[in-house]
Design goal:
- This protein is mainly alpha-helical.
- The protein folds into two domains: 2-180 and 286-315, HUPs (Rossmann fold, 3-Layer(aba) Sandwich), CATH 3.40.50; 200-281, Tyrosyl-Transfer RNA Synthetase (Orthogonal Bundle).
- It has helices at residues 16-28, 51-67, 85-94, 99-103, 106-111, 120-134, 148-165, 210-218, 236-249, 259-283, 286-315, and strands spanning 2-8, 33-39, 76-79, 140-142, 173-175.
- It has a three-stranded parallel sheet with strand order 1-2-3. Strands 4-5 form a two-stranded parallel ribbon.
- The two termini are 31 Å apart.
- The structure holds adenosine monophosphate (AMP).
- The site of adenosine monophosphate has 14 residues, from helix 1.
- It comes from Paractinoplanes toevensis.
- Belongs to the class-I aminoacyl-tRNA synthetase family.
- One of its GO terms (biological process) is tryptophanyl-tRNA aminoacylation.
- This is Tryptophan--tRNA ligase.
Length: 319
């Protein structure tokens, strides 16, 4: 089976875009791929952070993955901090990467532009991401536009290492699962729905109650054309609502005579999709979720240890 690694940042506020763009494709691929769902808690330390929030968000993401249908018997759910081979391989890959390669990363440039102190880990974390992928021999990595440069670096490092020291790593491929929808911000539909958007008005969090969902969708930005049609260029707001409806119901939307009618239908579809997830989330015991993370770690470690061992032999640290 194809090995696939899907990463999530433990930043809280997981939203409808994360569900329809990443979590649901992961659930759908469970029978045809050997998947790992990785929570990148180490990456959360690259910027100013609150330790309690990182801990809580890691558990929240793991719980939401389970609530959304990730089956831990098929998909290993791990936090990258709990599998020490990630950081061990990180250093070995740093010895393969160049400073200039890391400094060129768009995310590094953007996030370090604020003027405050810049953590060294912000520069090196794309190399950690390469280690996250290569340590498990992942063949496929679903990536959005914002991560494609980092995936390219992982490929470059794997190819370079293999060429210098002998065949060691599987070279991963960035993919966009067919079922992955791209959901836009409801208050600013030319931007992606995002956890970091300044205002929550454009976002539906996965644990939002129906009243909040209703309010957010009723205020969603549309336009003055007065016609419901899929035309992302000229009617991004209406097109986004249609895309959400299609993704939530898995059906082609019908005809609508008004924006109000469309919004009501979108609200019902989103509420119907999120209600059971919220209910399962409330039932999941934190102790059980921690056990699932521990099991995930146990399951992936033998292969990760073998990769690190192979890497150490190739690079000259072990016989
Ligand atoms: P993040 O934790 O923000 O890195 O996102 C986790 C996953 O959700 C990634 O695979 C993203 O591509 C996906 N994702 C984030 N925002 C959206 C969105 N608005 N629409 C679709 N997918 C998204």
């Amino acid at each position: 089976m194809i090995k696939r690694l899907t990463g999530f940042q433990p930043t809280g506020n997981l939203h409808l875009g994360n569900l329809l763009g990443a979590m649901r494709p992961l659930v759908e691929a469970q029978s045809t791929t050997d998947s790992i769902a990785m929570i990148a808690d180490l990456h959360a330390l690259t910027m100013e952070h609150d330790p309690a929030a990182v801990r809580a968000n890691t558990l929240e993401v793991a719980t939401l993955l389970l609530a959304a249908g990730v089956d831990p018997r098929r998909t290993a759910i791990i936090a990258n901090s709990q599998v020490p081979e990630h950081t061990e391989l990180h250093y070995l890959l740093e010895c393969t990467a160049a400073f200039g390669e890391a400094a060129r990363m768009i995310q590094f440039k953007e996030k370090s532009a604020g003027g405050g102190p810049v953590r060294l880990s912000l520069l090196t974390y794309p190399v950690l991401m390469a280690a996250d992928i290569l340590v498990h021999g992942a063949e496929q990595v679903p990536v959005g536009d914002d991560q494609s440069q980092h995936l390219e670096l992982a490929r470059t490092l794997a190819l370079r290492f293999n060429a210098r020291y002998g065949e060691t790593f599987t070279v991963p491929e960035g993919i966009r699962p067919e079922s992955a929808a791209r959901i836009m911000d409801l208050s600013d539909p030319v931007r992606k729905m995002s956890k970091s958007a300044p205002s929550p008005a454009g976002r539906i969090a996965l644990l939002d109650p129906p009243e909040t969902i209703r309010k957010v969708i009723s205020r969603a930005v549309t336009d003055t054309a007065g016609v419901v049609r899929h035309d992302p260029e000229n009617q991004p707001g209406v097109s986004n609502l249609l895309a959400i409806l299609a993704a939530c119901t898995d059906e082609k939307p019908g005809e609508f005579t008004s924006y109000g009618a469309l919004k009501r239908e979108v609200t019902d579809a989103v509420v119907a999709l999120l209600d059971p997830i919220r209910a399962r989330y409330a039932e999941l015991d934190p102790g059980y979720v921690r056990e699932i993370l521990a099991e995930g770690r146990t399951r992936v470690r033998p292969a990760a240890l073998a990769t690190v061992r192979r890497t150490k032999v190739a690079i000259g640290l072990l016989d």
